[in-house]
Fold these 4 entries.
Entry 1:
Amino acid sequence: MLWVVCWYPQSPISYRDLELMLRDRGLSVNHTTDHRWIQAYAPELEKRVRPHLRLTNGSWRVDETYLKVKARWIYLYRAVDSRGRTIDFRLSAPRDTAAAKRLFRKAFAQSNTVNPRTITVDKKVAYPKAVADMKQDKRLWRFSKLRQIKYLNNIVEQDHRRVERLVRPSLGFKRLRTAWNILVGYKTLAMMRKGQVKGIGGDDIVAQAAFVDALFDPAA
């Protein structure tokens, strides 16, 4: 089960592909069961991985891309640091100041983040208002600098492409909750591949698998 939960979110494959891969290994698991495992355990995996992440730095890059959920465009807000390490992410139907503020509040609540020195965004008008409101509410450091420089956001743009590559085989999402749980799996495995887990290299697949096993082992 953990193999399914870790393999699907990092590879551009469908649930039917995953069913065939398991059958090749002598396991008969229906693709709908694979889907239920992802829905149940991907959020739990993120919850258990978060306390083991390295600190991100104070130079944030924030942007959003869009995904289709039941024929409706939904926005995926994302923040990474200057090294490309994932800070946080959030799905939102509206694309406005309130959505940007919700991303910031969620990111500030994580144990591996620091109050940013700089926040780099594109030219959308929602971000200056969100940053000003967060400073007024004393949720954001008052000396944090907002930079609206599009080319400096190439790091987060590259991360968008990774998500789009993984989403394509799924042929879209049917429900917002389903989309969120799968995206949590994508992002959690991406954080591990980026070397964000303390003491484990981003290319050390064996150590990462052992780490995940230990997270779910009641005797560990």
Entry 2:
Amino acid sequence: MSHTTLRLALVQAASGLDPTENREALDRLAPGGHDLVVFPEAFARDFGEAGSDVSPYAEPLDGPFATELAGVAQARATTVVAGMFEQSTDPERPFNTLVVRGAAQASYRKVHLYDSFGYRESDRLMAGPIAPVVVEVGGWQVGLMTCYDLRFPEFTRRLVDAGAEVIVVPAAWVAGPRKVHHWRTLLTARAIENTVYVAAVGQPAPRYTGHSMVVDPLGEVVAEAGPGDEGEPVVVTAEVDRATLDSARVTNPSLANRRL
């Protein structure tokens, strides 16, 4: 496998309230022919009404959802990322977890819970440990973060300091005034300030913002979806290229020039 490029597929699709249907959607929606396929946050089961209890839908990392994810990854000979609620030490507050299965295996428990814009995610979920999770996929170092983590630049920098060259951001970015502007601006800023690729996949409109996108290390948008809708999944594909990454870090050596 070539390490000079990494073929990405971002599956902008809505998860519903039936975990069985969401599991079945993995195989139906995951495309072949890519090195990394990424589904949104909370794909195993949507959050439901704001503030509702999601603990009955929490699963272990070897439960039905992660097992199906591994099967889909194996069938496609790829690596797949998707979000789920994972059982924690508190039966009423699971983790909001990204599961990675296939050629790479990992899990990342969301660190920054969405206590913002009128929401209080921490009432229903437990924050994960503050530790960067970076996995190797096709010779590339891929860092993981989830939705609200995007608003904390120091967290992305932690991932980059741990070697990340591509940042993957599954999300369920709630729709509302200025929210698409914030999403696009922050994704672009994280790419520029860290000279990394950023690949972000969100659940679609109307509840969420969609606009799944890949941004290159100089802030150019390589591919982007629109808001989408719940009934029509969209797959955004892009190829990240090491020559582009290396060139960006010569042009803009901000990581090397840091003084803090």
Entry 3:
Amino acid sequence: MSGEVTGGVRVILRLEGLVVLAAALLAYSKFGNGWGVFAIFFLVPDLAFLGYLMGPRVGAVAYNFAHSYIGAVACLTAGLLLSMPLLLTAGLIWCAHIGFDRMLGYGLKYQAGFGFTHFGRIGKHA
């Protein structure tokens, strides 16, 4: 087994990304700080790409941290439980970003290089 998902499982994971994106957008419309803030911060998790300047191992760790639901949901939960609207906003935007990426088929990265994801190979060598 190659460590990548295929077939129906891949479709389900991409649909899950769409559902998370839709849920985050719906929640943001109710609890967020305006769509301008959303637009400004939506791509912030992609700054993790800079980790690849230090090699594929560091890049994969940085990318996976920024594109895993663990930190995003922790931020969202802390915002709710501690009544901190900025954390709630950040968590919703972060979840929306991850959902968007997963919907498009951009998965968590393996240390072999940026193009190796749990969804399979991406890029021109896919």
Entry 4:
Amino acid sequence: MTVDQGLAAALRHRRYLLSAWPWRALAYAVTTLPLAGAAALGATVVAAPLLLVAAALRRGRPVDAGALAALAVVALAVVALAPLAGAPVAAVERWRLGLVDDRPVTAPGWRGLAARFTTATGWREGAYLAVLGAAVPLAYGTFGLLVLLDAALVAGPWLAGGEDRIVLLWATVDSPAEAVPYALAGLLAVPALVYLAGLLVAVQAAVTRLLLDDAPAGTALREVTRSRARLVSAYEAERRRIERDVHDGVQPRLTSLTLQLGLARLDVPDDSPVAKPLAAAHEQAKELMGTLRGIVQGIRPPQLTELGLAAAVGDLAARSVVPVTVHADLTRPVPDLVETTAWYVVSETLGNVTRHAGAGRAQVRLTRTDRLLVVEVRDDGRGGADPARGTGLTGLADRVAAADGRLLLSSPPGGPTLVRVELPCRP
């Protein structure tokens, strides 16, 4: 089981500066620079006609029509080829996104050259090139100026003095003593810059996922229909009552009956007419004990009590035939009903993946926010899951609805399939 979280969530944690996330954000930012530089060249070519016109107007000279026409043709060619050029860049960016976001990114299959210009995927990847070549350099350049300014403040005591003077926007520093307060302010600003860098990278990663996470047409999450008439009003209280009654009432009496039957068998000779029926009754009582024990455990899985939700889901993943990766971000306690419902959701969904999906691997993600526990199970199988065909999703939606949650499904033909469950966690 792997327990982790994305950069955006990590920024909200108090120990962010002491974690590996600032270094992961730095790695993402550094590897962005060559890609953004190359994309910026294309953006400059596209903007060249406007730059030519602006320069001519600023100098009061006529615009060179021939040069403008040539630049416009080149710019239009660059824009027209953007969907094609965006394909390799998008492949690299989907891979790089794993540095700051562990959620999988759905990549489209190659559908031919014409599809690059006739599908939304190709043009979204072209739009990402525009973001990478225009907005990213501007944002990174602004942040770079802030870093240089902070570095100048910190180095002020060594740079000031003699004939050297440090000119700030609001003051002029003539001596090392005058530079010390600014140096201290610069040191105090370093953590803020680290957070700002993380926020900048998180925004870039969010835009990357928005444009490059390929969701085929018709794959929007849709809520699975469930019948409120089938729900039990006091589900959790009734569950606890049944569990307590079975465990404290029926189970001890059945255990006593089994022991008495066993003792009776010892007192009855093997050749007695009642020996065989008594042995059969004893064996049936022992089988019933095992069945009852399974029912009691099934009401609330013992793994939850012993291990907690994250580890219990990890245990389910370890026993799955299909390789399953678990990502858990459970920084707050989860109510018992929500915990039990989430466990059954994962258990039933992984069972469906094994039986019906034909998947090579699956991923489970548990995220605890202020008001929700979000459970996501994704697989790379054939897709086409339909609650109306009896895959158990409707019954699972009933269980989720009993906890006041909702179940949503995305399963286009050809996959992938995503089951998302949102369970409210009231304080």
